[in-house]
Amino acid sequence: SHAEWREAWEAARSSQFYVLGSKDETAGCQGCVVEYLGENRFRLRLRLPDALIERNAGDKYLILEAAMPRYGTDHLAAALTLEQAIGYRFRRDEKGWRVFASTKALPFECASDKRRGMIGVDLNADHLAVAETDRFGNLVEARRIPLVLYGCTREQASARVGEAGKQLLALATERQKPLAVERLDFAKKKARLEAEGVRYSRMLSSLAYARTFAVIKARAHDGGIEVYQRNPAYTSVIGRHKFAERYGISFHQAAALVIARRAQNLSERPNRRTELHNALPLPARNRGRHVWGFWRQVARKEAAHAARRRPALKSRSCSSPAQPGKARAVTTPPAAGGSPARESSPALFG
């Protein structure tokens, strides 16, 4: 009924509230003042709205005690000492009320050095492409870390993302080099995967994309590894035409190499072979433009070639199929020289 629906709606609407913190207030928050009791326990003094004071026996404060997880106790205790802002979210679920505290992360001792080189990371639908460079931007090593999240439950996806992040941070800690990742833009990332096929773009959701980078940055912070975020524009195009064949690596690893070199502020100028086969050299009046102007021409040329191939593939897939369960021989038209057509092996159509 409508009354039952409204009751459920009001219960869901009032299931959480947030208290904004400020570093200028006592204990980092005016609406909720916390006191450290030792171990992992805290006492919270919550300021009630005026409408609820009568229901609390005329007292405008509600005193609560809560036990924080041990991995977050030191952060909250340090925020009280350093007079940082602390925000609190109170949320009610099946087990009762929970308190989430958020504050500025503790400063960490940096264990990476950009002068040693960089480790570039390119997130793909089923793996992480990793490329390590030296201080000159030359490729040292390329790796592939499996990361298939399609069809996984939330717990399975979290476990796989955590394992991939663990392997990546082990490499960065061993080499003492910072990480270079893409600046988070799911729309552009999905557009890049659609160029390889719709199946790949469907395998990567925005939630998995954001969660993977959040885990990488969190683990890097705990390990003292710096993380640089760079614009991923034209990284696949540059890697495919400039580095993939030169180093004998995959297109995705070449894109990771471009991200690492971009974090090192190195040149992305095309080599001579790329200039001859993909776009004409710029006229003298436009040679002062950014190098991405050239790679934009290359990307448009590739998109035009892909658009020409797409109707042919579509017409081939839309041809009338044979009867179910029967084989049909596909023949090719005779060549220009008049050679007879060849019969291919029978293809089964369901």
Summarize the structure.
The protein is an alpha+beta fold. It has ten helices and 13 strands. A hairpin with a 2-residue loop joins strand 5 and strand 6 (96-103).
Descriptive report:
The chain has 350 residues and is α+β, with helices and mostly antiparallel strands. The chain contains 10 helices and 13 strands. The chain has helices spanning 2-13, 70-81, 154-175, 186-194, 198-203, 206-223, 235-247, 251-263, 272-278, 292-317; strands at residues 16-19, 32-38, 41-47, 61-67, 86-93, 96-103, 118-123, 127-133, 139-146, 179-182, 227-230, 327-328, 347-348. Strands 9-8-7-10-11 form a 5-stranded mixed β-sheet, sandwiched between helices. Strand 7 and strand 8 form a beta hairpin. Helix 3 runs parallel beside helix 6 and helix 7 crosses helix 8 (251-263). It is elongated and about 80 Å long.
Query: Averaging pLDDT over every residue, what do you get?
Result: 77
Strand order of the largest sheet: 9-8-7-10-11
Given the structure, what is the number of helices? 10
Strand content: 15-25%
What percentage of residues falls in helices of 4 or more residues?
A: 25-40%
Overall form = elongated
Structural class: alpha+beta
SSE sequence, one letter per element? HEEEEHEEEEEHEHHHEHHHHEE
How far is it from the N-terminal to the C-terminal residue, by CA? 48 Å
Number of strands: 13
Main sheet record: 5 strands, mixed
Uncertain residue segments: 320-350
Radius of gyration: 29 Å
Topology:
Elements: H1 2-13, E1 16-19, E2 32-38, E3 41-47, E4 61-67, H2 70-81, E5 86-93, E6 96-103, E7 118-123, E8 127-133, E9 139-146, H3 154-175, E10 179-182, H4 186-194, H5 198-203, H6 206-223, E11 227-230, H7 235-247, H8 251-263, H9 272-278, H10 292-317, E12 327-328, E13 347-348
Parallel strand pairs: 7-10, 10-11
Antiparallel strand pairs: 1-5, 2-3, 3-4, 5-6, 7-8, 8-9, 12-13
